[in-house]
Structure formats: structure tokens, C-alpha cells
Design brief:
This protein is an alpha/beta fold. The protein folds into 2 domains: 19-107 and 224-258, D-Maltodextrin-Binding Protein, domain 2 (3-Layer(aba) Sandwich); 109-221, D-Maltodextrin-Binding Protein, domain 2, CATH 3.40.190.10. It is 38% helix and 21% strand. The chain contains 10 helices and 13 strands. Strands 7, 8, 9, 10, 11 and 12 form a 6-stranded mixed sheet that branches. It has a 5-stranded mixed sheet with strand order 4-1-5-13-6. The longest helix has 16 residues, at 232-247. The protein is globular, with a radius of gyration of 20 Å. The termini are far apart. The site of arginine has 15 residues, from loops.
Length: 261
């Protein structure tokens, strides 16, 4: 009857246009984390994650979406408390995090790396023993520094900053001798400051048979979009949309906008 048709029509509409319509997907993110999420001097939010969010949530799935600034350390409890619907924050998929939230399929490969000032006497990982390094609190960079400290029998001091720019400032001001952080974000800083460089050497990427970047890699990581563990339907929609944009060239277009190499 009429009611049945209407219900069927609504369902078909839902499937066709994604779960979209009037619902706004709020996205928690720690900003700035350039080139993934940062504000231009005109105050416009931009970056790789910002463009992927537009492609996935808006263009593919038909949702309204909006980014919400939040601190990275605490972003998982904040998601689970309902402060926003998903996390897009260059977040690495880890086993520990996957106990508390669910992740989309991976959408980016990253490496933990070490940068030092150009005039530094630190030339290799081993030279960091007894020194002080800077990291962003709660990140896999912080975890990589913890692992290094363990490797050095405890002989490493780790300064933890709320935001990655705090660690970069500390490097410039000689409060730390190195920053441990995601490769592309370190690369952005190296290019902009013209005063810092990557530590070189073979590392995790070579060990794992990856196309190794030309600097030392402490880990190989994959980024995922984070969801509450009861949000399977949205997560599956997002995985579908990620597959579509990887397939149809949209992902590659966004990638080459932010990463030349
Ligand atoms: N990939 C690293 C991690 O998951 C760092 C992410 C920091 N992201 C940010 N937007 N500040 O721990």
C-alpha cells in the first residue's frame, strides 16, 4: 500500500544518497598538524584530512560535516563521551587505541622520524642517548621516544608538549635536541624552517620491506578515521566511500595536492 511504498522510497533514498540529509557529522581533530589539518592566515581550515573529509562525508555520503578542535591527548575519551562523532587527526591505528575505539580502513602510511637542527652534532639515533627530545603528548611519536628510552636503558629525557608546534619551538630554542614525530609533518617543518634536518639511516621501513623514505624511520604506521565502537553503520559507509575515492582518482588528486614525492 501507500505506506509501504513510502517506506521503501525512504529506504532507497537513504541508500542512494548515503545516510546524509540534515545530519551533521562532527569531526574531532587536534589543529594545527600541518599538512593534515591547519588554518591558513585567512583562518580557513585546510589540509589532507580536511579534503579527505570533504570527499568522504560530503561528496560521497551526502552528510553535512564540521571539524571541531580538541586536544590530541584525550581525543579518544572525548570521542567516547560524545563530544563529536568521529576522529580525523592523522591518527595512527594502534592495538591499544583499537581497544577503546574502532578504526576505518587505513588511508595513509606514515613513519616516526627524528629531526635535529642543521648544526646539530647528533648524526645517528645512538647519539640521542643522554639527551632531551621533544614529542607531542599522547602520540605514537611519544611512544616511539618511550621505546628509544627503553633501548637506552632509561638514559633519555622526553619533553611532552600539548601540540606538536610546542616541540618544534623547543627545538628551535635549543630546549630539546630532537623532535620525534610523523615524517610528513616533520618534513613540512624542515621545509619551512630551513633550519632542521632528518636523521638518516636504515630503519623500520627497510625492515618491513617498504618503499623506504630517505631518512631514519623508527616505525611504520597507518592512519585511520576513529569511531565509537557502537558506530558500525557509519564506519562501513566511510570504508565504502574511502574505497570509492581510492578507485576513482579523487584520493590521488588530494594526495598530490599535499605531497609532491
Ligand atoms: N600519528 C600520530 C598519532 O596517531 C600523531 C597524530 C597527531 N595528530 C594531530 N592532529 N595532532 O599519535
Amino acid at each position: 500500500g501507500a505506506a509501504g511504498s513510502a517506506a521503501t522510497f525512504t529506504l532507497a533514498g537513504c541508500l542512494g544518497g548515503g545516510g546524509g540529509g540534515s545530519e551533521t557529522i562532527t569531526i574531532g581533530s587536534d589543529i594545527p598538524y600541518r599538512p593534515f589539518e591547519w588554518e591558513t592566515t585567512e583562518g580557513e581550515l585546510t589540509g589532507f584530512d580536511v579534503d579527505i573529509a570533504q570527499a568522504v562525508f560530503a561528496d560521497e555520503l551526502g552528510y553535512e560535516h564540521e571539524f571541531q578542535k580538541t586536544s590530541f591527548d584525550g581525543i579518544i575519551p572525548s570521542l567516547n563521551n560524545g563530544n563529536f562523532r568521529v576522529i580525523m587527526s592523522a591518527m595512527t591505528i594502534t592495538e591499544e587505541r583499537a581497544e577503546k575505539i574502532d578504526f576505518s580502513d587505513a588511508y595513509f602510511t606514515a613513519y616516526q622520524t627524528v629531526i635535529v637542527l642543521n648544526n646539530s652534532d647528533i648524526a645517528a639515533k645512538e647519539d640521542l642517548k643522554g639527551k632531551t627530545v621533544g614529542v607531542q603528548k599522547g602520540t605514537t611519536g611519544a611512544a616511539a621516544a618511550d621505546a628509544l628510552k627503553e633501548e637506552f636503558g632509561g638514559d633519555l629525557t622526553i619533553q611532552r608538549y600539548d601540540q606538536v608546534n610546542g616541540a618544534f619551538d623547543a627545538l628551535i630554542n635549543n630546549q630539546v635536541v630532537a623532535v620525534v614525530n610523523d615524517n610528513t609533518v616533520n618534513a613540512e617543518f624542515v621545509n619551512q624552517s630551513e633550519n632542521a634536518k632528518f636523521l638518516e639511516g636504515a630503519g623500520a621501513a627497510e625492515d618491513q620491506g617498504k618503499d623506504a623514505p630517505p631518512y631514519l624511520t623508527l616505525t611504520v604506521e597507518e592512519y585511520g578515521i576513529g569511531f565509537r565502537q557502537d558506530d558500525d553503520d557509519l564506519r562501513e559507509e566511510v570504508n565504502g566511500a574511502l574505497a570509492t575515492i581510492k578507485d576513482n582518482g579523487t584520493y590521488d588528486e588530494i594526495y598530490s595536492k599535499y605531497f609532491s614525492g
